[in-house]
């Protein structure tokens, strides 16, 4: 699976993202719309993670979706 599938089916994956990162609001998830860069930016904003940590967390989450 590639990231385009996440973008195309974001409504299905939103719940999983909300479970993993509870600090993301519904508004955040609507703004993200499945775009990886937006997701990483919101995670940095909400959690204060470094860019490398955010990228690893998103990769780990993405791999659980397969």
CATH architecture: Orthogonal Bundle
As a whole number of angstroms, the C-alpha radius of gyration is: 11 Å
The CATH homologous superfamily is called: YjbJ
Secondary-structure element string: HHHHH
- Helices and strands: which structural class? mainly alpha
Please outline the major beta sheet. none
Content of β-strand: under 5%
Estimate the mean pLDDT confidence: 95
Looking at the structure, the CATH topology is Protein Yjbj, Chain: A
CATH first level: which class?
Mainly Alpha
InterPro entries: CsbD, UPF0337_stress_rsp, YjbJ, YjbJ_sf
Pfam families: CsbD
Organism: Bradyrhizobium archetypum
Family: Belongs to the UPF0337 (CsbD) family.
Topology:
Layout: H1 3-8, H2 10-20, H3 26-32, H4 36-47, H5 51-65
Notes on the structure:
The chain has about 70 residues and is mainly α. The protein has a single domain (about 5-65), classed as Protein Yjbj, Chain: A (Orthogonal Bundle), CATH 1.10.1470. The chain contains five helices and no strands. Helix 3 runs antiparallel to helix 4 and helix 4 (about 35-45) crosses helix 5. The chain is globular and about 25 Å long. The N and C termini lie close together (about 5 Å). InterPro entries: CsbD (IPR008462), UPF0337_stress_rsp (IPR050423), YjbJ (IPR026042), YjbJ_sf (IPR036629). This is CsbD family protein.
